[in-house]
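General statements about sequence and structure are easier to judge against a single worked case. For one protein, we set the task of working out the structure tokens from the amino acid sequence alone. This step matters because it turns folding into a mapping between discrete strings. The amino acid sequence and the backbone structure tokens for this protein are reproduced below.
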Amino acid sequence: MAKDTQQFITLRRFSISIVSVVLLIWAGTTGYMIIEHMTPVDALYMTVITLSTVGFSEIHTLSESGRIFTLALIIGGTSLFFFTLSNVAVFFLSGEWRSHWELQRNIRMLRKLNDHFIICGYGRLGTNVATELQEKGIPFVIIDTTIEKILLARDLGYVALKGNAADETVLKDAGLDKARGLIAAAKTDAENVFIVLTARTLKPGLHIVARADCEESENKLLRAGAERVVLLYKSAGRKMANLLIDPGLEEYLDELNDAKNLDLTMSQFSVSESSSLCGLSFRQADIYNRFRVNIIGYKLPGGEIHTSPIPAEVIQKNGILIAIGKPSDIDALKQFAAGEEVKTG
């Protein structure tokens, strides 16, 4: 039997036990009020001392009907006591209470997510993606079909949801309507195609990146709606070749991607029409001296990318700047590009 099913059964039996105790007390109180014409307080007192078998004296001498009712209450109470005790012991000793608490905590965190990423698949790739996002302080939720992986993710403090990411209901439960993007990192290319297709149908404007094992799957994923497809073996092959040819450069690029080492980050953002940058040449904008940020690329509104924009090139509305610098400097330039007033040194 699956672990999550066992947890549900244990929790259900525990809940039934508690409810049964409450109902038995209610039935006993009502019975004494009807049979012995006791007040509610006296009837409740009589019920509790009878079920607990503490041996205190009766409120008054019981009638024959009252004694028969008391015997039935004692027999029912004793049986229910052992049933409840066993279920409570199983619930706490097996650690199901902890799993239940973590599940409720996961649900609360899931409801609070906004502008997050959805990681579909918590395998080797999904694990590394989650680690990177966690280190950068970016919110995300994990979806996987395996309960063991979900529990592992929750143990690390991640928000995780068990289910098939190609299922519309599961994606909606993961907050797709509020999500910033989705990473399709399931075990097979076929699964990723269905995930991408479902996500794109539900939210046409969603940013989607998918993994693929073979080049034949790349076009299928792009047609399904992925904006970018990462061919793992191709990427790994290129990296290994670069390590052989020029290991120093590859190490430098790795450090640039690791903001913890050099306190640097790479980012891209568009230039708003209301920004003072709009209409200026790169020479006039003097971005490095004003923000201490290097522009390493510029994407024209039409999609053409200039890897080394010349000083005379004019920054256009909706053009995209690709920059590298300290996170605080990048944030200042990003705000300025959006049209906000920013003090520069």
In short: DSSP finds 15 helices and ten strands in the chain. The radius of gyration is 32 Å. The mean pLDDT is 81.
